[in-house]
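Internal tracking record. Fields below are filled automatically when a chain is submitted to the structure queue. Please do not edit lines marked as system-generated. If the sequence contains nonstandard residues, flag them in the REMARKS field before resubmitting.
Queue: standard
Priority: normal
Entity type: single polypeptide chain
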Amino acid sequence: MTATPSPAHPFARGRRLRSTPALRRLTAQTRLAPADFVLPVFVKQGIGAPVAISSMPGVVQHTLDSLRKAAHEAAEAGIGGLMLFGIPGEKDPVGSQADAADGIVNVALQQLKADLGDELVLMADLCLCEYTDHGHCGVITPAGIVDNDPTLDRYAAVAVAQARAGAHVIAPSGMMDGQVAAIRRALDGAAFTETPILAYAAKYASGFYGPFREAAEGAPQFGDRSTYQMDPPNADEALREVAQDLAEGADAVMVKPALPYLDIITRVADAVHVPVSAYQVSGEYAMVEAAAANGWVDRERAILETLTSIRRAGAGTVLTYWAVEAARLVR
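SYSTEM-GENERATED OUTPUT FOLLOWS
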């Protein structure tokens, strides 16, 4: 006999829609798809084989050849795109290799565009920290301060070089005031009016960038980046930065990091009507990998749960070092 529900038992039972994997799939409000993911990649000049990054298991500094192979694998996995970072053979105070025709990222872009055409979206991170000998994101004054406006001139030159090399999207990450406007003017003036800008609009001065600094070899040689990246306690400021970038011509915006700033992702996504990306940064990746290596978390579940949380918060696209693996898991 079936028991008759009494007033002491619930009539609304959330468990009804969780009872099988098929029901859970059917009622899922947030879904992951390969096209949601962008893979950040590092390419280094002057190395003969890929170099493992000790703080980011499974991630390497690529040669041009190994990058081309990784890009083909990414395309086969169906992910949305790549974000390219370069480590030059030589650095100087103004980051000359960032816009050099034979600069490592610009050569990589040319090769990837020739290999893949429009099969993957090729995004070029635009900053100077990997290219300067001081490790800051712009030109330095004699007093050791990042000089905003001369830096904009450098960004403009780099943007045009990256577009000429084949970048589909220019992604300025230096957090200089006016960077989007300067880049938009430069791109339009060089007949790249159709090249979109994905602005790192709300980029925080975070403690989660440590492994990236090993990967990109761009740690500041003095001070830190707190005067130009955002202060972690501030939320309203993120909306102001996003609004400014959109007013200057950004086509899409990004929040970085992702997991510690899910509230910012949500506020930005609610406030704008352009695509919103979030960058699951190196420290977020390294924490999960370290915990999984110690048997403290189920690695694949943790990967998918973190990515789902970022999408659930409102990000349409997630930059993640797990992009290719996650794409295969969600197919």
